[in-house]
Amino acid sequence: TNDDAIACSTGSPDCPGDPHQKYEMVLVEVSDTDVQKVADIAAEVVVGEWAGRCEQTYPGCTEVWNETIGAVRGIRVE
What are the tens digits of pLDDT across the range 10-69? Predict the structure, then answer.
């Protein structure tokens, strides 16, 4: 699916056609700096805001996060 999306978005002959349309976009690879910026925003803002909402409906949610996904991803919620 991703390969088709890239092929069609960039007008490649590999675009499978109907129902897909070809476009003439330029593929720009994501830089390491951009990847780090997204990770920082996720860790500093998104996860913290989500944890606040989660704790309202599931007390202990933050603890579960920190012990599972947070531990694997290295994103701890205080």
Answer: 999 999 988 899 999 999 999 999 999 998 998 889 999 999 999 999 999 999 999 999
Give the pLDDT score at 69: 94
34 φ/ψ angles, rounded to the nearest 5 degrees: -65, -40
Identify whether the C-beta of residue 77 lies closer than 8 Å to the C-beta of residue 62: yes
Contact (CB, 8 A) for 25 and 10: yes
Burial 17-26 (b: 16+ CB within 10 A, else e): eeeeeeeeee
pTM for the model: 0.59
Question: Does residue 19 have a cis bond before it (omega within 30 degrees)?
Answer: yes
Instruction: Retrieve residue 23's tokens.
Output: 């476009």
Instruction: Detail the DSSP E strand segments found in 18-77.
Output: none
